[in-house]
Amino acid sequence: MLSGGGGECSSTGYYLWHTTGQPSAIGISSSASYTNYAGFWYTIPQPQEGCYYLGDINCDDVIDISDVILVLRLALQLDSPKPCSDINGDSGVDISDVILTLRMALLLDGWRAC
User: Fold this and answer.
1) Residue of 49, 112, 48, 47 whose CA lies nearest to 86
2) For residue 86, which of 98, 76, 103, 104 has the smallest C-alpha distance?
3) Across-strand partners of 15?
4) Which CA distances in Å does 42 have to 3, 21, 49, 105?
5) Cα separation of 110 and 98, whole Å?
6) Backbone φ, ψ for residue 113 (5° rounding)
7) Which domains does the chain have, with CATH numbers?
8) Tell me: the pLDDT tens digits for 4-38?
9) 88 DSSP 8-state letter
10) What does pTM read for this prediction?
11) What SS3 state is found at 98?
C-alpha cells in the first residue's frame, strides 16, 4: 500500500518536491544547507547479485518457459553455467534440473531461494 505523503527537500545542489511514502512522520529537519520534510521509506530486500529463485536463469523474478529453455540449453552444454541452475543440488545441470524447472514454471512445485 502506498501513502500519498511527501513534500519538499532542498539544498544548494538539489530540490525535490513530492515523493511517495508516509507523510511528515518526523516533521521538518533543517540546517544552514538543507530543509527536509521527512517521512519513512520501506523497501523489500533484494539480492545484491544474481538471481533470487532457483530456476530463474534469466533473473527476471519469474520462473517460466524461457527459464526452462535456458536450463535445457545448460543441460545440453550449449551455454556456460549460470547461477541458480542446479535445481536439485547435485553439482551439475542435467535433464532432472530441466524437469524440476518445468514443474516450477507450471506451479506444480514451489519456488525456492537460490
Assistant:
1) 112
2) 98
3) 10
4) 11, 8, 21, 30
5) 15
6) -65, 145
7) 8-38 (no CATH), 47-106 (1.10.1330.10)
8) 555 666 666 655 655 555 554 556 666 776 666 55
9) T
10) 0.57
11) helix
Q: How far is CA 4 from CA 44, 66, 68, 90, 95, in A?
A: 19, 37, 41, 49, 50
Q: How far is CA 109 from CA 1, 56, 99, 101, 114, in A?
A: 29, 14, 11, 9, 15
Q: Whose grid coordinates read 515523493?
A: 19
What value does the CA radius of gyration of the chain take, rounded to a whole number of Å?
A: 22
For residue 81, what pLDDT is reported? 86
Pairing of strands 27-30, 15-17: unpaired
Question: How far is residue 16's CA from residue 75's CA, in Å, rounded to a whole number?
Answer: 50
Q: How far apart are CA 56 and CA 82, in angstroms?
A: 10
Spatial distance between the Cα atoms of 38 and 82, rounded to a whole number of angstroms: 42
